[in-house]
């Protein structure tokens, strides 16, 4: 088995990565390409699906070429993706009718507030496990059907977009579905991604007719829902296509569930936090869909072929790495690595708090009108204080989630597994350990999102036989333990709540 591998396409918010893993879960090759972030109006975020697909082909071929691998050496490909991001395309031509609406996009906040005013929030939560928020796919799909310009379609097809959807001529999906469709020609998603649309009943494990009616989404648009690791496979790449080989596409997971899978959180109570563009804290709750009383989401974690679904509690932070990118955008830092050096150069933030609510706040606040706020500044405040406050905001938001998670599940996490780009920052990892008063374990392979989708695909085709093999692959790079007292940290955390309060319900005029 030394000369065969499993590939993973990781279609993320800022770019697309292709990675190849060997049997021990080590990276054989990796290629990455960014795509454009499109901001048509304040609070609106779009991607070009065609650019994403072209980049996907580029990174796959580049990754294989650089490692001198033949596509035939891939036993399977797994997909992982930015979740909730919504694409609608023409069934016949495969062309998108509009740019993708990204999970960060807030243009449907008014629609969400209508639903809230109609008293339907609990009804939606009972079916989907989700808060009613512009974050999820349902209102995004509805917006595209109501607002995409017919001119974006071929001139001969002059009918409006919603009418064409009702006639069965359009398809929709999250980026996993878009990639699978372009790789195999099949219109498929997995249970974890379906559970993020706000159109899927996570108890019945099927698309919900009442929700489809509420959001005006025809059932004919929706992909077939399959297990995350599927022995039947989702199809294979075309031997005459860009890859030049028939490779089974056999696993798919939304990026946060994939990271959980890659961190081998297969048992109830095991938890991980991924620090990417946002930060996402998930705890495995086993075969029980635990309802949250503290603003968390109940979501599908994953499903293996012929096995029951496993669920998770999830806390979603919209801005983590994106807050660090903002520091770079406004020239407070030159690069992300500089944040640790600048933060260490001061003993504290000197009372400054930064709430990075640039696109609202996720769990546990769920305020789409919250906005980014810096409080506590004096004439003596320097950029070092603001940079440190930004790193601390990531850690404080994680504590918000950790406390909600413990309250809902009754399980205290004694070790949090972390991954994502930001965990390369030792200062942030130590800060996180101090603020949540919990040990932090950083694995050797921190691209656990790609690894999780590779694991799902590899299990499906027998490249790995059991999850125990995957557990054996998990290796710690470094652990961090609390160095500050709980009394000291609690005092700082109390003021964080005050800062958050000042950010809430700010964007009144949108």
From TrEMBL:
UniProt-listed Enzyme Commission number(s): 2.7.1.30
InterPro entries: ATPase_NBD (IPR043129), Carb_kinase_FGGY (IPR000577), Carb_kinase_FGGY_CS (IPR018483), FGGY_C (IPR018485), FGGY_N (IPR018484), Glycerol_kin (IPR005999)
Span of domain Carbohydrate kinase FGGY C-terminal: 272-460
Residues annotated for sn-glycerol 3-phosphate binding in this entry: 13, 83-84, 135, 255
Annotated residues for binding of ATP: 13-14, 277, 321, 421
Family matches, as CDD domains: ASKHA_NBD_FGGY_GK (cd07769)
Binding locations of ADP: 13, 17, 277, 321, 421, 425
GO molecular function, one term: ATP binding
Keywords of the record: ATP-binding, Glycerol metabolism, Kinase, Nucleotide-binding, Transferase
Entries under SUPFAM superfamilies matching the protein: Actin-like ATPase domain (SSF53067)
Domain Carbohydrate kinase FGGY N-terminal: from-to ranges: 5-262
Catalytic activity reported: glycerol + ATP = sn-glycerol 3-phosphate + ADP + H(+)
Coiled coil: none
Record-listed glycerol binding positions: 83-84, 135, 255-256
Stored PROSITE patterns: FGGY_KINASES_2 (PS00445)
The family this protein is said to belong to: Belongs to the FGGY kinase family.
HAMAP family: Glycerol_kin
Functional summary from the UniProt entry: Key enzyme in the regulation of glycerol uptake and metabolism. Catalyzes the phosphorylation of glycerol to yield sn-glycerol 3-phosphate.
Protein name listed in UniProt: Glycerol kinase
Species this protein is from: Haloarcula salinisoli
Biological classification of the source: Archaea, Methanobacteriati, Methanobacteriota, Stenosarchaea group, Halobacteria
């Amino acid at each position: 088995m030394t000369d065969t591998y499993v590939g993973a396409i990781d279609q993320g918010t800022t770019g697309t990565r292709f990675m190849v893993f060997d049997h021990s879960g080590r990276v054989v090759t990796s290629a990455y390409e960014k795509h454009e972030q499109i901001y048509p109006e304040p609070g609106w975020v779009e991607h070009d699906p065609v650019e994403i697909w072209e980049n996907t082909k580029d990174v796959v071929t580049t990754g294989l070429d650089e490692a001198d691998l033949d596509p035939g050496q891939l036993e399977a490909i797994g997909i992982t993706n930015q979740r909730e991001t919504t694409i609608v395309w023409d069934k016949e031509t495969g062309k998108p009718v509009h740019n993708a609406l990204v999970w960060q996009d807030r243009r449907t906040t008014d629609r969400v507030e209508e639903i809230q005013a109609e008293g339907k929030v609990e009804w939606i939560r009972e079916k989907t496990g989700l808060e009613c928020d512009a974050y999820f796919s349902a209102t995004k799909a509805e917006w595209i059907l109501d607002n995409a310009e017919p001119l974006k379609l071929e001139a001969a097809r002059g009918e409006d977009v919603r009418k064409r959807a009702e006639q069965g001529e359009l398809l929709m999906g999250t980026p996993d579905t878009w990639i699978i469709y372009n790789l195999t020609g099949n219109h498929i998603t997995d249970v974890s991604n379906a559970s993020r649309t706000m159109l899927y009943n996570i108890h019945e494990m099927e698309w919900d007719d009442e929700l489809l009616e509420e959001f005006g989404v025809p059932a004919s648009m929706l992909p077939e829902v399959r297990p995350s690791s599927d022995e039947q496979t989702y199809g294979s790449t075309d031997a005459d296509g860009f890859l030049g080989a028939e490779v089974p596409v056999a696993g798919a997971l939304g990026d946060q569930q994939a990271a959980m899978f890659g961190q081998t959180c297969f048992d109830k109570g095991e938890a991980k936090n991924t620090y990417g563009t946002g930060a996402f804290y998930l705890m495995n709750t086993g075969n029980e869909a635990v309802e949250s009383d503290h603003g968390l989401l109940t979501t599908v974690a994953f499903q293996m072929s012929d096995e029951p679904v496993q669920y998770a509690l999830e806390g979603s932070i919209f801005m983590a790495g994106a807050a660090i990118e903002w520091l770079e955008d406004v020239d407070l830092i030159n690069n992300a690595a500089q944040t640790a050096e600048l933060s260490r150069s001061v003993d504290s933030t000197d009372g400054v708090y930064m709430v990075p609510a640039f696109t609202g706040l996720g769990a546990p606040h769920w305020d789409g009108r919250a906005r980014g706020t810096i409080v506590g500044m004096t004439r003596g405040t320097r950029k070092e204080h603001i940079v440190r406050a930004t790193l601390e905001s990531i850690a404080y938001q994680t504590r918000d989630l950790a406390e909600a998670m413990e309250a809902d599940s009754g399980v205290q996490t004694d070790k949090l597994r972390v991954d994502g780009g930001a965990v390369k920052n030792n200062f942030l990892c130590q800060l996180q350990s101090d603020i949540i008063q919990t040990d932090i374990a950083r694995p050797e392979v921190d691209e656990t999102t790609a690894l999780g989708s590779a694991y799902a695909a590899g299990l499906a085709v027998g490249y790995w036989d059991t999850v125990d093999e995957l557990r054996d692959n998990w290796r710690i790079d470094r652990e961090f333990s609390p160095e500050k007292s709980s009394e000291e940290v609690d005092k700082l955390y109390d003021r964080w709540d005050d800062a958050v309060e000042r950010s809430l319900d700010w964007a009144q005029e949108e």
